Hints:
The chain is of the alpha/beta class. It has helices at residues 40-47, 70-75, 93-100, 107-120, 122-126, 137-149, 167-182, 194-200, 218-223, 225-231, and strands at 2-11, 14-24, 29-33, 55-60, 63-64, 78-81, 155-159, 186-191, 203-208, 211-217.
Amino acid sequence: MLEIRNLSVHYGGIHALQGINIDVPEGKIVTLIGANGAGKSTTLRSIVGLVKASGGTVSWNGMNLLGMQTKDIVAKGVVLVPEGRRIFPNLTVDENLQLGAYARNDKPAILKDKEEIFRLFPRLKERISQKAGTLSGGEQQMLAVGRAMMTKPKLLMMDEPSLGLAPLVVKMIFEIIKTINKEGTTVLLIEQNAKAALEVADYGYVLETGRIILEGKGKELLADDRVRKAYLGETQ
């Protein structure tokens, strides 16, 4: 269970997050939607220690993560798939996956988990010896998710997984997110594709200029006139 309370982040004179509160219950998919610059990525980056918070708490199963090193947060099972994928382009698919398990020493389990990744993403197995930089955008996103899964996350956080991908690939990525969740991993997802995110989410939050302005069950937010007008491009 992730509990964010009164989280604030400043960039110089900019108050990027203004005391937000978010709950991510175990076993659920929670999404955070909002326009560019709303503070979505800042939220995820502050959870894993890549951005320093100026106030509040981020509690993971009763432990405050603020002030911890990123590697120690990852060791607790909280893992981020960053925006832009950030795979290692000059390493092979297999080497990228191996790096996801860099902190583990349980070799038989690592091999088993890699086979699980190939079950989820058969295309990665087909390209196991191919350099990651030569993959398509969709394949690179699969690899970024697969690499994160190799850390054995309890909470998988994803920053704009559909960004720049073709509609068919986006649909597949969201199906994979649902599968990962059904198989036991809690998911915190941020997306500009509000419709796709809210369709898979158990619960959602709407972030606007550093503040939570709306929250509710995914389907309730999909039906909310304010969300439909602001984020789904509907005028009625």
